[in-house]
């Protein structure tokens, strides 16, 4: 069965990925992207509007489905070559996290709910993914089921 993930990046970077049909995490590292499989669902959380900025966003900013292509390097110039993974991004409005905190399994009852976000990519439950999608006003496909022979 497919997994669900939360990735973390500034809203500005997420919008660039949505426009280009890709995602990057953890400052361009390949290893976290390799943990994901085709058909996995991913929601982006953006703590800030701009990278390194103090301009809070604290919102879910994208939701989509990981595609078949393996992580690949992309030369952004200036010697920076991050790894990317292709994603089909769904529609949906950027949505503040605060109204959802008591209903999300990964944060309910947690005073320090933001701790997990420091990892840049972490797995969440189907319940949490569906709740995020609903709040964003969209739906993401049901995770792929294994094929029985």
UniProtKB/TrEMBL annotation:
InterPro entries: EVE_domain, PUA-like_sf, UPF0310. Coiled coil: none annotated. Residues 4-134 form the EVE domain. It holds the Pfam family EVE. SUPFAM superfamilies: PUA domain-like (SSF88697). CDD domains: EVE-like (cd21132). Belongs to the UPF0310 family. NCBIfam families: PRK02268.1-2. This is UPF0310 protein EJ903_07300.
